[in-house]
Amino acid sequence: MIKSWVQWAVLAYCVGVSSAAWGGTCYHTLPMKDWAAVWKMYMGSCQEAPPKVPASSPYSGKWSPLSWQAACSAALNLGASPTPQAAQEFFHTHFECVPLGKAPAKFTGYYLAGLEASYKKDSVYNTPVYEWPDDLSVLDLQDADPDLPNRRLWLMRSQVNLKPYPPRAQIHSHLGDKHAILWAKDPVDLFFLQIQGSGVVSLPDGGTTFITFSGRNGYPYKAIGKEAVRRGLLKKEDVTMLSLKDALRKVGPKVAASIMNTNPSYVFFKETQNAIVGASGHVLEAQHSIAIDPDYHAYGLPFIIRIDNTKVTGEVIEKIAFSHDTGSAIRGVKRFDFFTGSGTDAMNLASSMNTGGDAMVLLPKR
Description:
With 366 residues, the protein is of the alpha+beta class. It has twelve helices and 16 strands. It has two domains: 2-109 and 282-364, Beta Barrel (Barwin-like endoglucanases), CATH 2.40.40; 113-222 and 263-272, CATH 2.40.240.50. 30% of the residues lie in helices and 27% in strands.
């Protein structure tokens, strides 16, 4: 308890420090071994068009695309592989640490999930994995009229009108076999891969492919744990991703579907052959990529994050992570999903992470 209180005190202090002091307090415990990965990811972002920071972002007034480009030009002079000390000093010189508010951040974890699927539908592989459908459009109200609220609408186009896209329970009856890029063996595995946002697909012939998030149907994400508890499948204190998977498989396909359908949000995928990329189009890096709410944050920005994971692993995870992804459950300025990688350890860390911490965005100095 004392250890946890001290760590939270350190996090609270870091939120209040001035930008001028950030080099001494905001990332002084970041492992030197991390800087090679940080530099590689930064160079991948900075040579593209500057990130588009939303007007609703708490740091929009501090954002300067010209400063971002100037910092990138300076980074190019260091080359592709500077020493860890040189990379750290570069960020100290060219970036400032900007708090996102005094409230604690909330962190969950996600990982590269696995899915057994086939390109052909049969009696074993019969759950469709849908790509973005051609009758789904996203309308930003302020694009139509600046005086309208800052909201997006996910609409189904027809010959006569526009109306909200179907929720999860109606997706299959609406689309049928159309827009299925793969056929999954287990609908429970597909459901949880939709929560993760990306995954590696094992094909019947022994080959593999990758799928990643390409969009959603616009409904807010609703966790199914409460429904599983309400129906008596699990006790509240026993709800985890792994226990939910086991419970859904035990009750059978029809009951499992009725529980999963209480979450109206539905995720569409696209196939990638070489690496897992996030919604931003950037390759996800284990423990250095995060999913953010794009209503408040731009893709491609570096963040300093501190995750209080003491209840699970007894440690505070401190990293520089880049905003490479999003997810239907990630809503709010200080709501983040931490990409843990692939494999059993990554799955265990992600499935157990639901905790607080803090985060700041790193912006180029003007």
